[in-house]
Amino acid sequence: METLDQAKKMAGERAADFVENGMVVGLGTGSTAMWAIHRLGARVQEGLNIRAIGTSRQTEELAREVHIPLVTFAEVKELDLAIDGADEVARDLSLIKGGGGALLREKLVASSARRFLVIVDQTKRVRHLGQFPLPVEVVPFGWELTQSRIEKKGCRAKLRMKKDHKETYMTDNGNYILDCDFNEILDPSSLHRDLKALPGVVETGLFIDMVYAVIESDGIDVSIEYNNPYAE
Ligand code: 5RP
Asked: What pLDDT, on a 0 to 100 scale, did the predictor assign at position 230?
C-alpha cells in the first residue's frame, strides 16, 4: 500500500476507536472516511451497536454494504460524533471541505454532532486555507450570475464537471459546485459570511470553529490535536 493510503487508513481507523456502544455517528465522505467506515463495519460485526447518518449517497451505500444501520434526521436530532476527512486544515483548525462534492450534507452532519473528528493525512495541513480551490455549492438556476458575483470576491470560480469533462457535476442535492481559486484565504469567517449572503449560494466548504479534534497520520505514526482540551 502507498504511504498516502496507509496514512489515510491509519487516521480513519484510529477515529473509529472513538465510537462507543449506543452512539449515533455521522459518517463522512471520501477516501479517508472510507477507512473509518470499514473499521466501524468490522466493529459492528463484532457486536458494536450504533446508528449512523451518511453524508452522501456513496457513503450510505458503503455503510449498508458493511452493515452499519442508517437513520435519518427524522429519527435523531443530535449525533454523538461525526467523522470526516478534509481537503485543507489550517493552524486554527478551520477547514476546506467539499473536494468530494458532499459539503452541504457534511456541514449539516458535522454541525449536529457533539464532537466532530477530522481525519487527514499529513499533506492536508496548511498555513493558510485557499491553495485548494474552495468548493461552493450553488443552485443551478442563474449559476452564471452567482459565479460572477463570487468572482468579485477575489477568485476564479470554475464550474465543476464530471470526470468525463463533458457533463456538469451535480451534487446529491441537485446543485452545482463552483471551485473557487482564492489562492490564500486570510479571513475565512468573513469570506464565508460574504459568500453565504449571495443569492444562489447554498453552502461553502469553509468549516470554521467546528472541529473537536484532528487525527493526522503520515503513514507511520498517528497524532491527535484537540481543538480545546477543556471543552466537553
Ligand atoms: C468530501 C470531502 C472530503 O472529506 C475531502 O475531499 C477529503 O477527501 P479524501 O479523504 O478523499 O482526501 O470534503 O466532500
From this structure: 59
Q: 108 phi and psi, to 5 degrees?
A: -60, -45
Was domain 3-125+208-220 assigned CATH 3.40.50.1360? yes
User: For the whole model, what pTM was predicted?
Assistant: 0.97
Query: Taking a C-beta distance cutoff of 8 angstroms, is the pair 8, 217 a contact?
Result: yes
CATH 3.40.50.1360 in the chain, residues? 3-125+208-220
pLDDT for res 188:
98
User: Would you state the cell numbers that stand for residue 24, as one nine-digit string?
Assistant: 449515533
Which pLDDT band, with edges at 50, 70 and 90, does 231 fall under?
low
Q: Which atom of ligand 1 is nearest to the CA of 120?
A: 10
Architecture of domain 134-202: 2-Layer Sandwich (3.30)
- The atom of ligand 1 lying closest to the CA of 32 is 10
Q: Which of 60, 87, 122, 204 to mutate to test the pocket of ligand 1 (most atoms within 8 A of CB)?
A: 87
From the list 106, 137, 203, 216, the catalytic residue is 106
